[in-house]
Amino acid sequence: MAAINDIVLVHVDDKPGFYARVEDISPDVKPGWWQVRLLVLTFPLQVFTWILDEFQLDYAPFTMGGTPIRLEPVVSPLEEEQQQQQKQQQIQQQRQQQPQKTQQPQKKEDPKKKPPQQP
Prior knowledge:
Blueprint: E1 7-12, E2 15-27, E3 33-40, E4 46-53, H1 54-57, E5 62-64, E6 67-73, H2 77-97
Antiparallel strand pairs: 1-2, 1-6, 2-3, 3-4, 5-6
């Protein structure tokens, strides 16, 4: 879910439109809806206030005046790399914590012994 100070990419008509920083999220009069103030990172800077519901704040697509809109979280490549490293470390730790299966010694067949013949 989008939070204050998050950077988002706003898709307009299913195409990247602009970047914005979430400046404020405050409850709207209507329950389950939020007034979201965005600092639009254009030149010159602009401030938009959109009224969004919880699903839209959670990056679900919606429309404004019939135009498809969608927010997408922007994550720094450095942060993504750190997250991937953390996941790999967690996986390695989980593998180390799992009890290792001991292999049962396999029975060796006596080469002199013939397998039973079927009638």
